[in-house]
Sequence to fold (94 residues):
Amino acid sequence: MARSLKKGPYIDPRVLRRMKKLKGDKKEPIKTWARSCVISPEMIGYTFLVHNGKEFISVKINDSMVGHKLGEFSPTTKFSRHGGKMQRDIEKKR
Fold:
């Protein structure tokens, strides 16, 4: 469900604090668990280490990511494969 327009996008205050601390140094990654934090234009160029429940995934922010959430770029499940007879036939050919 979308957040109310009068409230504005949710940006975690701890993430903003860490960004201000690293103002000049955009090379050092910012470690965060705030997957629901919306990416704002000020975050472009920074690298975030976003937690997926098991490990931290490196996410470099670019301009096409603005408006999305950090969690969208750190998948929580690992895709193994589709099952079924058709998949077995494909694997036998390899």
The chain has one domain: 13-93. Residues 13-93 form a domain with the 30s Ribosomal Protein S19; Chain A fold (CATH 3.30.860.10). The two ends are 43 Å apart (CA to CA). The first helix runs from residue 13 to 21.
